[in-house]
Amino acid sequence: MSVTTTAAGPAAHTSNIPLAAAGLALGMLLSVLDQTIVSIALPDIAGDLGDVGSLRWIVTCYVLASTATGALYGRLSDRFGRRPVFLTAVGIFTIASALCGMTGTLTELVVLRTVQGIGAGALFTIPTIALAELFPVALRGRVQGAVGAIFAFAAVGGPLVGGAITDTVGWRWIFYINVPLGLISMALVGAALRLPRGGLAGRLDVGGSVLLVGAVVGVLLIGEWSSGAQHAGVGLIFGLGAAVVIMLGAFVWRERRTEDPVIPLGLFTNRVTGVILPATLVLGVLMYSSIVYLPTYLRSAFDMSATEAGLALNPYVVAFMVASFLSGSLASKTGRYRPFLIGGAVVIAFGFVLLGRLDAESSYLVVALGLIVLGCGIGMLVQLLVTVAQNAVAATELGAVTAAALALRGLGMSLGIAIYGGVLGHELAGKPVSATATADAIPDTLIWALPLTMVLLVLTLVIPDPAQQSRSTGEDRADPGRPAP
Predict the structure, then answer these.
(1) Of the candidates 465, 460, 449, which has an alpha carbon nearest to the alpha carbon of residue 346?
(2) Total domain count for the chain?
(3) For a tag site, which of 181, 202, 396, 400 has the least CB within 10 Å?
(4) Residues 113 and 215 in one domain
(5) pLDDT (tens digit per residue) in 79-129
(6) 217 and 170: one domain?
């Protein structure tokens, strides 16, 4: 199936949509999978390379680099085109993956994982933009629902896949497997994706990009250093926080004055995206505050191994994938997004209520019910928020709004780990270290997510109707009552 692309006006080029979509989806899968797949292999890596104290940075440096560069890649692809920027990023990711598998020291691995993360910054951002351009508005919800399913599988299934690879052929193949998959993604996108070249002609906002990357890295480091085993001094945390505030202030000042900003500040005054972007940040906090700590609860309450805990999360993963695809499809078919957004926020709140009532004696059936409910709620929102944001702006701002939404979601994920890691530490303070204490403390931690679920619900309630979006942007909208092509 080859169609003329029309997202940015009449296009002279055509894309083979099935092959292009497959190549883009494979890149997205690699990007998210490598955030979590390595965690299960850390003990084996330590056994081979030593330096246990630096192991955490194998994961952290990748997340830092990929999150910090996402918005920049969106703007680069606006200027130079989606295909060349994506191919370059996948090339960087693939070469770095091969070198990660051949490394001989932990220091080298951390450096190469950073390079890998720099490439990965484009592997989720650009496909999310390109898929919105390949498909008509009437199909965006369905396509982004499928993207959400990929995200769920990769985010939660990563440790399970990593464990299987590590147990069978060794941890180095966690990185080697990226090489053929990356080459396949490059071949498909290179041959099939034909989108109009970016139309931005002004100078690239290098200064704004540096300030934004610095602020994002600062926020992520605060989250990293204020939780877990590697605590930084209070003075360092406050100093880093002050630096983040200064960089954000300088970024806003610069973006108001530059001709071609990295993130147009008008996105935050738009009636739709001004609500969607904060909602995406809140959803990121809620999503990772649960994903990160639920496996620990399962291992503590039911004496499960890491692999068993990963399998026990299947109710969450399946519910997430099904809800993401169905909500996107139904929203596209009916043209009504608000009921799914509001309903998703309500279901998320109910899910946290159920999980907050657990304890060390709860049966797995009760746990599975809570996992299903929470997975459904988050699945309904995770990509639908992106779709509504994309539909609310002109084609020239599609890259910017997508990159901004994904960057804020990534920030929210890191903040969720930090915030609820601190709450969990407070719940465990003064208690004897035991599996029972941990299993009792994690539900008490999750219940503190309820205030944020109320914030998310309020934000979804004030999102304008999509019909108003159409009138405000002047874009043609497909008739919701007409069957999608």
Answers:
(1) 460
(2) 3
(3) 202
(4) no
(5) 888 899 999 999 999 999 999 999 888 888 988 998 999 999 899 889 988
(6) no
